[in-house]
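Justification of computing resources. Each target in the renewal requires a structure prediction run like the one illustrated here; the chain below, 313 residues long, is used simply to show the kind of job we budget for.
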Amino acid sequence: MNNNPLKIFSGSSNKALASEIAQYLGTELSGIDLKRFKDGEISVKIKDNVRAHDVFIIQSTCNPSNDHIMELLLIIDAAVRASAARITAVIPYFGYARQDRKVEPRVPISAKVVSNIIQVTGADRVLTMDLHADQIQGFFDIPVDNLYATPIAIEYLMGLEIENVVVVSPDAGGVDRARFLAKKMDTSLAIIDKRRPEANISDVMNVIGEVSGKNCILIDDIADTAGSISKAAEALKERGARDVYCLFSHPVLSDNAAENLKRAEFKEIIFTNSIPLTDEKRLDNMKVLSIAPLFGEAIRRIHNGESVSSLFI
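Resulting structure tokens:
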């Protein structure tokens, strides 16, 4: 049992989610002032006493990602200098995660850079969800808990009582994620064979598996422009699929993503609130699942020194 008092702080990226998490924990968000100077510099001031406290800072590093990362770093540093006992960076959406390796000469491993600066600034632990690549956990030399939204999604999907289902991965890289969902829902699995000539551009080449006459659940971790998953839906329907459901964790939804999703004519578009959804991106067939109970329970267990492994599956 941790005898140090619990404090929950929120950056500006997703205050609604942070408030939900605090409510789950039966507390309120602690006071913090976040301001901008005229030239764009970020000013941070923690208003509450955090000396010898167990501090959790909630901040998704979504658009504008650089500002939100910098804001997170400054809050961490403020907590360090205010003598917090332990600081956990709670990052529901971890930006730069897609840049986790060198895919060509003379490029950075940006996910490693972000990992470095978070821990060097003073974070003692990181709590995140559905990392684009699991190996990013190894970029840190501090404990990292990578939660999964799949259990929340399964509970919702089972409630829909969809018949004759096949789970579909939109690319080879997401097969493990799709296989896990298929196993839990006791359904078959299909894979989209995709070639990507440039970033955010994909050409669907083939569908591996039987989808004709079936209701498909397309699962991915991130929807950025939603071009890939929308083209995957078109390929499935061309091969005789019935209804196609779209399931992903992080609604980045850049540029014309909403138009792409609308054009794909999904039966339902299901994702979490790891990133706040703006009104201009909202469609009638979208369903947002709250991850506040998942993160709230993880924070409670971390604070109390209990196992969080059961939340990973």
